[in-house]
Design a protein that fits this description.
The chain has helices spanning 41-48, 110-114, 161-164, 170-182, 199-208, 223-229, 245-252, 267-275, 301-304, 319-331, 350-358; strands at residues 2-7, 16-22, 29-39, 63-71, 83-86, 125-127, 130-132, 144-148, 152-155, 190-193, 214-217, 234-236, 259-262, 283-286, 308-311, 341-345, 364-368. With 369 residues, the protein is of the alpha/beta class. Strands 3, 4, 5, 8, 9, 16 and 17 form a 7-stranded mixed beta sheet that branches. It is globular and about 60 Å long. The protein starts with a strand and ends with a strand. The structure holds nicotinamide-adenine-dinucleotide (NAD), lauric acid and zinc ion (2 copies). Lauric acid (DAO) is lined by residues 40, 42, 62, 89, 105, 110, 169, 289, 313-314.
């Protein structure tokens, strides 16, 4: 079939809207009509050329929601008409990783996904007879896409696609980092570096679990009001601090953060986040993805004296199990997604969504097909 897609032909170039060819689902695969997709910082990172795994030409996008149109042989848990959210972290429920409660990093299709291919080693997308690569196993910047059954969470039918698509990455990553990875306890003091599409969800997760102080750190003063709307109790703009930001945060929190979260992807702020964590027990969670070849550093004594450094992917969530529950949280009014979706646009205007992100004017732009 033909489908309309925004194609990334090369790093650093705008996406081009094309009618591409899409093969139907093979064994264990599902054809999905994508109804809406968010534009995440990670799509921009890959498009910039900074992502070591970035492959071109490809169809980016990993934060979608849609409807099952067709299923391949052997698909057991999904049928035509089901509403689904694609998962860049699948959940096969049988690999060594899925069977270990300490991780959500299912490895069943990891190798081919990293190569921009489906599990059989081929691509379903092509243009003029030449293959286009898949992205993060999702490729939601296409009106139709094919995914393995294990990379789709089935969700309730009454949830709006243009909001729940954000649960496919940003919402789950931010809230999940608090709930699944850090397991923040009520009364904890939390510091969040970067109040974008991820950091604001960390804030709402921290508020949801009953954190005490929730300190937001951002260079963009416009993020203060939104942070406060989501439960931030204190805002720190590093440009307005005299002296050391770490010392300032330690003093503000009365000794350091019980939990800090880095939601920028900057190795300098990763160090600051670790070092503002409380001596003896503070945990710092890296969510941001740093550029290719970058390294983190600190004095080892920071760890010797009881701070710990951790990381999280997709908020530690097991997608097929956890994503439907987060959709319920949204539908029950337990979490706010609507206020974070600042712009919507048709696919033809997707490059404008990237501009808004780079200019710091959007939290989430959502493409509605
Ligand atoms: P974003 O661009 O929306 O937000 C980043 C925020 O950081 C902005 O508000 C910006 O003003 C602020 N900022 C930038 N430099 C700063 C500095 N030096 N000090 C303080 N604030 C600064 O990005 P996002 O969509 O929220 O994504 C954040 C990071 O999370 C990215 O690196 C993204 O790739 C990563 N990410 C990770 C996962 C995961 O599973 N680990 C999932 C999604 C995204
Ligand atoms: O299993 O080796 C692996 C990698 C899993 C990929 C997880 C990616 C998480 C961070 C990228 C940002 C997502 C938008
Ligand atoms: Zn993302
Ligand atoms: Zn698995």
């Amino acid at each position: 079939m033909k489908t309309r897609a925004a194609v990334a032909f090369a790093a650093g170039k705008p996406l081009e809207i094309c009618d591409v060819d899409l093969e139907g689902p093979k064994e264990g695969e599902v054809l999905v009509e994508v109804k809406a997709t968010g534009i995440c910082h990670t799509d921009a990172f890959t498009l910039s050329g900074g992502d070591p795994e970035g492959i071109f030409p490809s169809i980016l996008g990993h934060e979608g929601a849609g409807v099952v149109v067709d299923v391949g042989p052997g698909v057991k848990t999904l049928k035509k008409g089901d509403h689904v959210i694609p998962l860049y972290t699948p959940e096969c429920r049988e690999c060594e990783y899925c069977l270990n409660p300490k991780t959500n990093l299912c490895q069943k299709i990891r190798v081919t996904q990293g190569q921009g291919l489906m599990p059989d080693g081929s691509s379903r997308f092509s243009l003029d007879g030449k293959p286009l690569f898949h992205y993060m196993g999702c490729s939601t910047f296409a009106n139709h896409t094919v995914l393995p059954e294990i990379a789709l969470a089935k969700v309730r039918q009454d949830a709006p696609f243009d909001k729940i698509c954000y649960i496919g990455c940003g919402v789950t990553t931010g809230i999940g980092a608090v709930v699944n990875t850090a397991k923040v306890e009520p009364g904890s003091n939390v510091v969040v570096f970067g109040l974008g599409g991820i950091g604001l969800n960390v804030i709402q997760g921290a508020k949801m679990v009953g954190a005490n102080m929730i300190v937001g750190v951002d260079l963009n003063p416009a993020r203060k009001a939104l942070g406060e709307q989501f439960g931030m109790t204190h805002f720190v703009n590093p440009k307005e601090i005299d002296g050391d930001i770490v010392g300032h945060l330690v003093e503000l929190t009365g000794g350091g953060a019980d939990y800090s979260f880095e939601c920028i992807g900057n190795v300098t702020t990763m160090r600051q986040a670790l070092e503002c964590a409380h001596k003896g027990w503070g945990e710092s969670i890296i969510i941001g993805v740093a550029g290719a070849g970058q390294e983190i550093s600190t004095r080892p004594f920071q760890l010797v004296t009881g701070r710990s450094w951790r990381g999280t992917a997709f908020g530690g969530a097991r997608g097929r199990t956890d994503v439907p529950k987060i959709v319920d949280w949204y539908m029950d009014g337990k979490i706010d997604i609507d206020s974070l979706i600042t712009h919507t646009m048709p696919l033809d205007e997707i490059n404008e969504g990237f501009h808004l992100m780079h200019e710091g004017k959007s939290i989430r732009s959502v493409v509605v097909y």
